[in-house]
Here is the input.
Amino acid sequence: MLVTYESMTGNVRRFIKKLEKQTQIKTKEITEDLRVNEPFIHITYTIKFGEVPEKTQKFIHKNKELLYGVCSSGNRNWGSYYAAAADKLSQHYQVPVLLKFELSGSDSDLDKLIQEVKFIDSNQSSTKVGSVKQ
Ligand SMILES: Cc1cc2nc3c(=O)[nH]c(=O)nc-3n(C[C@H](O)[C@H](O)[C@H](O)COP(=O)(O)O)c2cc1C
Here is the structure.
């Protein structure tokens, strides 16, 4: 399972660096034109009152067939818009929200993501449905 991501101010990138330190999970920072050829989950941030960043929108649109789940970093100060990019992508592409986390995430956020990736890897051939509810 590949983990793709987008980061503007560095929080998601810091989260990914922690993931890379702890696991062998493959990661890739996206560009609009990136095409992936393996199952992936995507981690974005949320912007503009619950919106999905444009680069992520374009990337996911191009690669939707292989998308297995989404995560978003955000900030609880945004209230009901907290990490809402994940909800938007989830609804639009019918994939689960695997994780919402604040800023660069906590150790337990990281653990949860690792568990989700393992779960999807072990169930990948049969289903696109994720496990743990938020
Ligand atoms: C202009 C602006 C708008 C934001 N809007 C939201 C929002 O609607 N919801 C949310 O949860 N976080 C919002 N955030 C917080 C970011 O999603 C959060 O800081 C995230 O960790 C940024 O990830 P990055 O550092 O990888 O770019 C906003 C941040 C900025 C600067």
Summary: Residues 4 and 42 are 5 Å apart (CA to CA). The first strand starts at residue 2 and ends at 5. The pocket of flavin mononucleotide is lined by residues 7-13, 45-50, 73-75, 78, 81-84, 103 (CB under 6 Å).
